[in-house]
Every structure is written in structure tokens, then in C-alpha cells.
């Protein structure tokens, strides 16, 4: 099948038949969390990391605890149904359930074909612009309601940012905090190679901790490649050996042009190969 839909109970559903109630709070308020994973060669890349992040997201989002075994069962059913040899995008969606309902969360798993733009970005890299946000460093610790480290269903601002940059004729964006600190992309983590060191913004401050970046840094550490989590200014990106946007579906896309500046492509590290190797872990 080229589209798969599985209910939280592990029942294979017709993807053309509606699954949700119109009063589901995931739909009405974006009140829920999700995970997006790459399905490749009959397996799910980084499943354990995604399940860990899902479990870590439900607490801050005030959702009922998620049963990882139940999610894993539904994921297993979905992957067995996915007969396409092409890459797929597997989503696990977990919402607060129905407005005024019995408090039972909604859970479902879907798989759809990976978008063509992912392979293009992996192959050709991307042009990006930096975009301001109102975030200031340190806010996450005092404003937990912002759900900054949570993969929340409230994604409209992220996709609006992508529409905005597309209207400017570029492919992607890098969000900056109010003081210019680099945060993340609307759907990716930022990793720079600076003097041969892999550097990413602090994972606990205003960004979603990426599973792809995490897997890369673990592999890098095992290979003796230096890594660092630290505050970065956009000017440091302009001067970096290379800058990459990392995410579960695209894996690694090098930023070719940022804010109209042609970016370096001179890393001693083969970041794309390291990401491809670590993505399964
Ligand atoms: N940051 C944001 C805002 C994202 O939406 C994503 C992925 O969708 C990421 C980072 C990268 O996370 P991952 O590598 O787990 O896909």
C-alpha cells in the first residue's frame, strides 16, 4: 500500500475513510504531540529515540502517559502494511482526545510517501534565510507553557514560516532568538561544522531536541569527532566550515546559501555520510 493508516488499537483502517471526531482537541487546539520517522527498507529509523521523545513530550504537554508498547505495536502493524520500496513518512499522532469526552487520548499511526523535496534537499542542499522569533534564551525554563522542547501538533507557525521563505524564493529557514542566537529550522535541527567540531544550539533552550542530531553526535563521539552544544550567533554560521539542517525525513541538507551569502563547503567531516550511518540507530 502507498498510504497506511492504523488506529491506536492496531486496526488497519482505510486511509480514505475519516478516522477522527470533529471535536478532537488535536484538531481544534493542536492539543497533542506527534513524531515523524523515516520508513526505509522495511524498518523505522530511530524508533527508540522517537518513542523516548514522545514519552518525554506528554508530561510537559499535560497529556496522559503514553503506552510505548501500544505505540510500538501500531507502528509494527503499519510498517508491515507498507509494501512500497520507496521511503515513507511514518507519523505517530497522540492527542488529548475529544472535547468534553471521557479523557481518553486519540492515537493513530500513518505512513505516506516521503516528499520528493526531501531527496532533492539531501542531494542538492538548500537555500535558507534566518527569521526572527520572539524567543529569548533561558525562557524555556521559566515558561513551560511555551512547550519549546515538545513536538507539539501546534505546527501552523512552522509551516507558515516555510510558506514565507518559499515566497522569497528560498527553501528553508533558520529561526533566531530575539538576541540573534541560532535556534533551529521550522522542521530541522541546525548543526554547524566549525574548525572540524560539530556544533549545535543548546538542546534544552528554545528548540526541539532533534533525534537525527542526537544520533549523529553519538556516532561522532564514538568516532572521536569533537561535538559541542553551545549558543551560536548567525554570524558564526556564515563563517562555519559548513552548516547543515538535520531531520528524520530529509536526514541532512547542507545550507548552500544563507541570507544571500554563499556558505562554506569545506568540512573535513562527511556529515551526510555520518548522518546516513547514524540514522538507523
Ligand atoms: N526542530 C523542529 C522544529 C522540527 O520540526 C524537527 C523535525 O521535524 C527537528 C527539529 C528535527 O527533529 P528530528 O531529527 O527528530 O526529526
UniProtKB/TrEMBL annotation:
<comment type="similarity">
    <text>Belongs to the class-IV pyridoxal-phosphate-dependent aminotransferase family.</text>
</comment>
<dbReference type="InterPro" id="IPR050571">
    <property type="entry name" value="Class-IV_PLP-Dep_Aminotrnsfr"/>
</dbReference>
<dbReference type="InterPro" id="IPR043132">
    <property type="entry name" value="BCAT-like_C"/>
</dbReference>
<dbReference type="Pfam" id="PF01063">
    <property type="entry name" value="Aminotran_4"/>
</dbReference>
<dbReference type="GO" id="GO:0008696">
    <property type="term" value="F:4-amino-4-deoxychorismate lyase activity"/>
</dbReference>
<dbReference type="InterPro" id="IPR001544">
    <property type="entry name" value="Aminotrans_IV"/>
</dbReference>
<keyword id="KW-0456">Lyase</keyword>
<dbReference type="InterPro" id="IPR043131">
    <property type="entry name" value="BCAT-like_N"/>
</dbReference>
<protein>
    <submittedName>
        <fullName>Aminodeoxychorismate lyase</fullName>
        <ecNumber>4.1.3.38</ecNumber>
    </submittedName>
</protein>
<dbReference type="InterPro" id="IPR036038">
    <property type="entry name" value="Aminotransferase-like"/>
</dbReference>
